[in-house]
Amino acid sequence: MSRPPRARESVLDAFARILSDDGERAATMDATAREAGVSKGGLLYHFGSKEALEAGLMERMEALAIDDIEEIKRAPEGPVAAFMRTSIHTGSVLDQAIVAVSRLAQNGSAPAVEALRRVRVLWEEALRPLAKDETALQLILLVSDGLYFNNALTVGSVPGPQLDADDIAALIRLVEASTTPDAAAR
Amino acid sequence: MSRPPRARESVLDAFARILSDDGERAATMDATAREAGVSKGGLLYHFGSKEALEAGLMERMEALAIDDIEEIKRAPEGPVAAFMRTSIHTGSVLDQAIVAVSRLAQNGSAPAVEALRRVRVLWEEALRPLAKDETALQLILLVSDGLYFNNALTVGSVPGPQLDADDIAALIRLVEASTTPDAAAR
DNA sequence: GTCTATATACAGATAGAC
DNA sequence: GTCTATCTGTATATAGAC
């Protein structure tokens, strides 16, 4: 838990940004080094291979997800609403990390698929006590996945389908009404 | 509308299969030619560039989607249930084409993003008359997107989270109850 | 229409100077 | 710790034979 070197963090920032904004093909070690302001040799001092760089990103994503789940549990609007609200593109570091890792997963990285699945299980466990049954729980998670999928399609300068704040609020009310046992009693 | 050459179709089959099963990085022109049983030169006779190959795949996806929507409209179980059921991984050619194009979209292909958006609009238009309001319509589409996202994460031999037939049936009932005006009257 | 051979560019990774 | 220079493999694309 010692503070990590600044250059190492800059490299991870750059790698996540390029993966999420421009896609996996663009996220070369060369482009990552340039964006981070270091040379390719400098990058390779901190991450000895592309695989190691990807592993570093996944580790960061899981740490951010664990923090996020603790925040969501204490959210005044309730965990379900907070979870859904943070599933739209907020531009948060966690958001970016999840989209970045999902790009790796979709290009054949088994460790990335496993890391995403672990995070999904953490969310399931946090939200299960609030859902009226397993089907309701899956509905909440699938809507969140759908929001992420739409975020993830937005590459380069072409925006995907967008929902505004009112749309999201209405969607959260509908999902809560369908999935939580005491929705009518609120 | 003349019948397309067999070799051309084989190439598109192979390209879609590799994109969907192994990811964008694996879907090289070399691997596609090998899988289709033609040489690289042979492939390049039908598709003069990678861009042309991608465009060919998108055209096929949109044609399949248009057919699929007509089928869904006439489904005995109702369009919403039929739409959701075909959103899980059925291994259909349309399924494979959509996952394949979404891999291109997530690697920076603007035409792929636009093609997927056009298909999404077709689904919206087909399902809108059945949803009680716009929020309900978006819920249906987002759950479908979520199912696709989970399919899409399944690369190589690592399976993503899976729902069995009973889970899907329960999910369809819950979504229909939340989104269609006459659900109680059934 | 389909093939082989080849040109050009760029990826990941190594060696070794500073 | 960070750099430059370089090796090796592989991607897209072209040229031209059959």
Per the principal axes of the C-alpha atoms, what is the gross shape of chain A? elongated
- Oligomeric nature of the chains: homodimer
Query: How many distinct beta strands of chain A?
Result: 0
Query: Which two chains have the most extensive interface, and how many residues on each?
Result: A-B, 51 and 51 residues
Low-pLDDT regions of chain A: none
| N→C terminal distance of chain A | 43 Å
- Residue fraction in strands of chain A: under 5%
Class from secondary-structure proportions of chain A: mainly alpha
Radius of gyration of chain A, CA atoms, in whole angstroms: 18 Å
- Global mean pLDDT of chain A: 92
Biggest sheet overview of chain A: none
Q: What does the model show?
A:
2 copies of one chain form a homodimer. The first copy, chain A, has helices at 6-22, 29-36, 40-46, 50-73, 79-85, 93-105, 110-127, 134-153, 165-179. By secondary structure, the first copy, chain A, is mainly α. In chain A, helix 4 packs across helix 6, helix 6 packs across helix 7 (110-127) and helix 8 runs antiparallel to helix 9. Chain A is elongated and about 60 Å long. Chain A binds a DNA duplex (18 and 18 nucleotides) through residues 5, 7, 28-30, 38-46, 48-50.
